[in-house]
Amino acid sequence: MLSIALLTSIDNPKEVDVTFTISFKDKKVQFEFSSGADYTMAFHAHKTVLLNQYGMVSPISKSDIEQSEFLIEYAVKGNRVTLNGIKGVKWDNLTLRKDSGVSYVLNEDGILDTKRSSSDFEF
Length: 123
Known about the structure:
The protein is mostly beta strands. 8% of the residues lie in helices and 48% in strands. It has one domain (16-116).
């Protein structure tokens, strides 16, 4: 389990340009970055994970925190997803509905757009 108390105490002097789409299909979630990172990652939607510009970070270390331009925690409970902005973003937390076929476009400022897809993404 991640220690959010430790992570939320991080000084956040530098915000980064990060934009990504988060999409849901069945029991999986996909993160696709268009700026701030160069990867697309899919994993089981029930996991709690920490993401930075390189990918999934776990377990978190002081070195991971220092080297990360941004840190975002993804956690889920039922059909609610919580994104905790730990470093490099202006938001502390965002709550999304985990609905299959729905995607959210987010950046360092928060949610930019919500879309319902007629064609689901592939894993």
